[in-house]
Write a structure and sequence with these properties.
By secondary structure, the chain is α+β, with helices and mostly antiparallel strands. It contains 16 helices and twelve strands. It has helices at about 20-30, 45-55, 85-95, 100-105, 105-125, 130-135, 135-145, 155-165, 175-200, 205-210, 220-235, 235-250, 255-260, 265-275, 310, 345-365; strands at about 30-35, 40-45, 60, 125-130, 285-290, 290-295, 295-300, 305-310, 370, 375, 385, 390. Strand 6 and strand 7 (about 295-300) form a beta hairpin. Helix 8 crosses helix 9 (about 175-200) and helix 9 crosses helix 11. The protein is globular, with a radius of gyration of 21 Å.
Length: about 400
Amino acid sequence: MSATVSALEIFSHAARPDPYPIYERLREQAPVHFEESIGIWFLTRHEDAATLLKDSRFSADRTQAEQYQDLARDLPRSLLGLDPPDHSRLRRLVMKAFTPRVVERLTPRIQELVDSLLDDAAERGGLELVEDFAYPIPVTVIAEMMGVPVEDRDRFQQWSRVLAASLDPIQPAERIAQTEPARIALTEFFRGIIEQRRREPRDDLVSALVAAEESGDVLTEQELLVMCNLLLIAGHETTVNLIANGTLALLRQPEQLERWRRGEVADETAVEELLRYDGPVQLTGRVPVEDCDFGGRAVPRFQPVIALLGAANRDPEIFAEPARLDLGRQPNQHFAFGRGIHFCLGAPLARLEGQIALGALVRRFPDLRLAGEPRWRDQVVLRGLEALPLKIA
């Protein structure tokens, strides 16, 4: 069936506040959709997304796609764009820092940050949620974990916003022009930090990466730099969006907010539903290394395939009343952190930060409400708010 809706609508400015009706129309009219003008396939169903993310026939290395043959193959690639065995080796060297047991030790520090920021908000009588709350929590935590100066967070924000936006598969020329300077600036920043840790190791993640060794293997200088860039950006960008998107969803559905406030749902369950309902990562892509099939449609090898995670997370075949926010929803097999070997390393940390931050915000301010119009960031892959002004009394 030919679709009367184009996947390109997802990338329009008009879709920023609410892309979900577009996802729904795509899923109903052409769940496996080929966008001929850009040569990319789009998947909207939960089952198809799971296959794409878990099946070894699909590579994370986008340079294998026809559209990206002109990309320099020696550009540094992070875990996000690697396949085994390279992916396995690098992930093994860093995953110990993000196990649930290690992350749980950060609870007191996260709680301290949350309480301090909410105390400041109480004194002011309001807050701009993104800048005053959602951003400072995860960027401070990841900066302290890595041992980089928290006072540099304004620079982190500038660089990471540009690099996070560069994940979008369709970008305006001015954004493309900004990407390389930001990448170079962040890389040079970490080059200095790494050199310091070689001379004077500390009890932090960068020092651990410098010293990392498993089965006689170590990270090269280039791998170290790319890994540090990824950890800093991924370590806070998605959590900022989780906290902000989740807060807006609660304010728009106050009956669910009250359920949480009254203790009718657990913090853990509530955050999982917010991750499903309006997740911080809306899509991810792979490249088939052999001809394959989705729902009876033949997909040739080396043609890129994108799973619309936001659509899969509202697939009615999996989730009852998928457009309804239900903080008590269980089970909740969403794709907010991906699936398969590329499942997000930082998922335990993001979950913990979201549970502490949102749980405290909900309980602390019973009169929490919007103080102006939300403003969305101009990007698609990482969906989040630029600003969310709130009144708290």
